[in-house]
Amino acid sequence: MTAVKGLARWVPAVAVARRYERAWLWPDVRAGIVVTALLIPAGMGYAVVAGLPPETGLYATIVPLLAYAIFGPSRVLVLGPDSALAPIVAAAILPLALGDPARAVALAGLLAIMVGTLLVVGGLVRLGFVTDLLSKPIRVGYLNAIAVIVIVSQLPALLGFSIDASSPWQGAAAIVQEIASGMIDPIAAAFGVGSLVVIYALKALRSRIPGVLVVVVVSTALTALLGISTLLPVVGALPQGLPAPALQGLRLTDIAALALPAAGIALIAFTDTAVLSRTFAARRGDSVDGSQEMAGLGIANIAGGALGGFPVSGSSSRTPVAEQAGARTQLTGVVGALLLIVFILALPGLTQFLPSATLAAVVTSAAISLIDVRGFARFVRIHLVDAVLSLAAFLGVLVFGVLEGIVITIALSFVAFVNRSWRPYKAELGRVQGLRGYHDMSRNPAATRVPGIVIVRFDAPLFFANGAIFDDWVRSRVRAAGDGVRTVILAAEPITDIDTTAADELVELDEYLRVHGIRLVIAEMKSPVVDTLARFGLTDRFSPDRFAPTVGAAVDDVTGTLRGDIAGTRWDAATGRDAPLPDDTGDRPPPEDPPAPET
C-alpha cells in the first residue's frame, strides 16, 4: 500500500485509475470528442505562428496530452500549443534555422526538451510554492483578462473576416473598424452567431447533449451537404504523419543559444498553467500540488519535444471547453489524443468542412464562462484591497501580457502584505464586567484598565518596518494611562516572528519602561519566537520570569504582588462573573503547607 501511495505521488494517473467511477466514462469520452474539434485547428494554427510546419502542432498536442494524463495532477487541464508561447518559440528558433524547415523542427524539439527539463528540476526541488502567491483576486482578474483576450481573438473568425493586431487593444480597435467598414461575411456570421445561439439555448434548456458537440456536427454536415466550403473559411484537412523523433542536425552551440528563451518559456508556461490548474481545481473542489504540476508539465514538454513537437502549456481556451463538456478526468485528454491519431490515419479530410466561424463560437462560449463579474463585485463589496489586486491583474495581463501582468500583481500583493504588517491592527486590552478575558478597549466602551497595568496587543510579526511603530505606540498607551502604571503586559500571541531590528526596538522599549519604573511582561509568546530572542542574546534581559503563558496568568501574577483590593481581575466560574480579590493576598489564595515527605 505504501509503495502504491508513493507511486501515486509522482504518477497521479495511478490514483485516478484506482478511484475511477463508471459514471465518469461517458462524460470524459464526450468531452474528448468535443475538445478534439479545437485541438486540430489550434495546434495547426499555433505551429504556423511558431514558424513550423502545421503537423508539428498536432504532434505538440497528441504527445503532451498523453504524457500529462499519466504525470499531470490536474483532473481537467488540457495541454497544447499556446498563443503566448508560439511567438517566443519563433523568435528563438528561426534565426538559428536559417530557412531550413527540418532544422527549425529540430530546434523547436530541443527547446521543448530544455523547457521540460527546467520544469522537472523545479518540481523536484519543490519550486511549485510560487502557486501560493496566486491568490484568488489574482486568479479572478487573470481569468477575466484571458476571457477578454480570447473573445477579441475569436470575434474576427466568428464574423468572417481577419485582422492583424499584436495586442488586445489593437485587436478591439481593428474589429470595430472592420465592422464599421461592412467587412462582415454574412454566411460565416450566420454560422458563428447561430452556433452561439444554439449553444446557449441548449444550455438554458439543460440539454444532456452538449451544445458544443451539436453545433460542430451540424455545421460540418451543413457545409458539406450545401457545398459551401468554398464560400466561407473552414478548418481544412489534417496533414499526414504520426509523431516521430525529429532532432537531427543539432549542435552543442544550439543549447547555449536556446538557454535564455527556454528559461523564459518555462516561467511563462508554468505561471499560465498554474493559474489555470489551481482555478479549475478550486471550481471542482479539488486541490493541485504546485510542484507536482511543474513536474507534470515538464515531462509533457520533454515527451512532446522528443517526438516532433515544441513547447506547450495549459490552454486557456481548450480547458474551459473540456470542463463545459463535462470532463471528469484526464481521460478526456487521452480520448482527444487518440481521436487525433485516428483522424490523421483514417479520416484526414473530416475537418475540411468544419467552418472556422463555428469553431470560434465554441471558443467564445468557453471564454465567456471564465468571466467572473460577480466575484469581482464581491471583492469590491467586502475587501477593497483585494478588488484593487484583481483589477491590477486584469489590466496588467491585458496591457503588458500574461507573465508581466501576473508578476506585477504579485508584486502589488507583497506591497499590500507589507503595508498590513507595517501598520497592523493594534489594541489596548481591558476588563469588561461580566465577560471573561481581556477585550479591545476601542471596541468595548465599557472596558476598563486593570489598575496599575497597561495590556497591549500588536497583530503582526515584529520586523524592521514596524518595530519603531510598535515602540512608539506602546509608549503612547503608557502615557495615556497616566501616573500609577507599574506593569505593561504585551499580549504577544499574534507576534509570530521578530528580526534583529525589531528586537533592538523591544530592548529600547524595555529600557524606557524600566527608567520610568515600569516592568514589561510578555504573555502568550510562541516558543519559536522566545527561542529567537535567546539566539539574539537577550536571555539575561528577558529572563523566564518575564514571560507568562496567558494574559490572565500575567495579570494574576502582577496583581498578586500589589497591596490592597483590586476588584475584577479574576473570574468566578461558579457565578460566571468577575470576582474581587481577597484583601489580604491579592488574587491568590494562601499557600498550603507542603506535604510531609514520604518515608
TrEMBL record:
The keyword Transmembrane helix applies. The chain crosses the membrane at residues 29-50, 56-71, 78-98, 104-129, 141-163, 183-202, 209-235, 255-275, 325-346, 353-371, 391-418. Residues 443-558 form the STAS domain. One of its GO terms (biological process) is transmembrane transport. The keyword Transmembrane applies. It is found in: Membrane. It holds the Pfam family STAS. Keywords: Membrane, Transmembrane, Transmembrane helix. InterPro entries: SLC26A/SulP_dom, SLC26A/SulP_fam, STAS_dom, STAS_dom_sf. Residues 569-599 are annotated as: Disordered. It is a multi-pass membrane protein. It comes from the Bacteria. GO terms for cellular component: membrane. This is SulP family inorganic anion transporter. It comes from Microbacterium sp. LWS13-1.2. The lineage of its organism: Bacteria, Bacillati, Actinomycetota, Actinomycetes, Micrococcales.
